[in-house]
Design brief:
By secondary structure, the chain is an alpha+beta fold. 41% of the residues lie in helices and 11% in strands. The strands form 6 sheets. The protein has a 3-stranded antiparallel beta sheet. It has a two-stranded antiparallel ribbon with strand order 1-2. A hairpin with a 4-residue loop joins strand 4 and strand 5 (103-104). The longest helix is centred in the C-terminal third of the chain and has 22 residues, at 187-208. It starts with a strand and ends with a helix.
Length: 249
């Protein structure tokens, strides 16, 4: 954790060095012996967003990954106490709210600047319910204009070849966005996202007879971007979100 203005904020990390056991060959190729890169690859895997341009200094360069330096808006939303005092919320907003973009974004505590990276992590403060009405409205407007595609919400606005980037969409992020929007009364947009996501799942199921881990939301007829590993069949969170959406749309 990092203490800023007297409050603790959190980042992903790993105390071990060297390549990840499950991806040893890939990490050695990426890091070329650089222990800092190994540490950041491990932190990126711990985040669950393995991998995304969200963590990169250079948009399409995995070796520029700096997960360890970043205070993620979603992680700190998960860990925030809803009963936190007003000064904590003010500090949170100072770190993560980008008024120019009208969204929440990550904060690099090494550079003492926001990353400015656009991702669906912006919906976590809405899901938690501590965005203001004005902030929620701006996030909803931005997402509808820039991230809503034919098949649902795209994870980021960057096509890097990584799986937690465009053109991919992920069920848990659709669900968090929908629940956040509903909490602030944006039911029309929430229902639109539900319908698009349901249709995407149906299209892929018709073509493959499978539910998938992730989907191509820009062109649902195509398979999603693989990233580090091939597309996984199943999939628990896809099944759960699909069932929730069809029973609530």
């Amino acid at each position: 954790s990092i203490t800023l203005a007297g409050y603790k904020f959190f980042h992903y990390g790993d105390n071990l060095t060297g390549p990840r056991p499950e991806s040893e060959k890939e990490d050695i190729q990426t890091a070329a012996g650089d222990e800092v890169i190994y540490q950041n690859l491990r932190a990126g895997a711990e985040s669950g967003w393995d991998f995304s341009s969200r963590w990169f200094d250079e948009t399409n360069q995995l070796k520029s990954i700096r997960t360890f330096d970043i205070l993620p808006v979603d992680l700190n939303s998960f860990l925030i106490n809803p009963e936190s005092d007003e000064n904590y919320i003010a500090t949170y907003n100072y770190l993560f709210w980008n008024d120019d973009l009208g969204i929440y974004t990550d904060y690099n505590y090494k550079t003492k600047m926001q990353t400015g990276k656009i991702s669906l992590a912006m919906f976590l403060p809405l899901w938690q319910g501590f965005a203001s009405e004005e902030q929620a409205a701006k996030v909803a407007k931005f997402a509808e204009k820039n991230l809503l595609k034919r098949g649902g919400l795209v994870t980021t606005n960057v096509e890097s070849g990584e799986q937690w980037d465009s053109p991919n969409g992920w069920a848990p992020l659709q669900w968090i966005a929908v629940k956040g929007l509903e909490k602030y009364g944006f039911n029309q947009l929430a229902n639109k996202i539900k319908k698009l996501w349901i249709n995407t799942c149906k299209i892929t199921y018709k073509n493959t007879h499978k539910m998938l881990e992730k989907y191509n939301v820009i062109n649902p007829e195509l398979m999603p971007e693989d990233g580090e590993y091939t597309v996984q069949d199943g999939f628990g969170w896809t099944n759960g979100v699909y069932l929730d959406f069809i029973h609530s749309v």
